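Example record used in the benchmark description.
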Amino acid sequence: MSLYVKALLFAFVLGAVIGSFLNVCIYRIPAGESIVSPASRCPRCGQAIRWYQNIPILSFLLLRGKCGSCHVPISWRYPAIEALTGVLFALVLDQYGVSVATLAYWLFAASLVTIMFIDLDHQIIPDVISLPGILVGFCLSFFVPWVSWLGSLVGIVVGGGSLLLVAWGYELLTGREGMGGGDIKFLAMIGAFLGWKAVLPVVFMSSLLGSLVGIPLMLIKGGRGGFALPFGPFLASAALVWLLYADLVVATYWRFLG
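Model output (structure tokens):
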């Protein structure tokens, strides 16, 4: 096995372990609970999960998707989030190599996964993630050569400001709030990590993804009122695409324009 493959395998395993912790964050942060204590427990029977029952992905397979104590089925999302985080960590390492940037973008990818699933479940983007994320992203710009501190700062302003203008305009035209403050702060965080050049492509791609998913869902529901689709998962997905494949996105754009 080559050193390159070993490095990718290490990144995947590390990401899966982090993904196990992200599952805790996704469950506890919206509930206002500590992410440190108590130790992980079965949400049904309350029995503490032993270390060998908490090995990412593997324990789920060995336990056949059931709690080791009460045998109630475990949601498939737990191993899926672990696997997703592992794949993202491996892709980031493949893209940026052994560097400070990889450490920074591992943290960024973990934050995106957490926000994505919290917003899907509760339609909120916690300030406890996005606001510190803005500061962390700006500080890390001093160590990432292709995102200057000025580019990060402008990214914060453009990211937060662009969605703020959209939100104001929508509310002015319709008299209803169409975008929460969490999305605004989240895009500011994305701008802090990726720089101002990423903001408009991320907004465009997330809007396109949102339309591709939202319009069919609205048609299925027959246009009934009360339908709300969180925007955070699309922002997170677009940010990940830009993080990993920015050059391909730009090349495809120019090829499309001929």
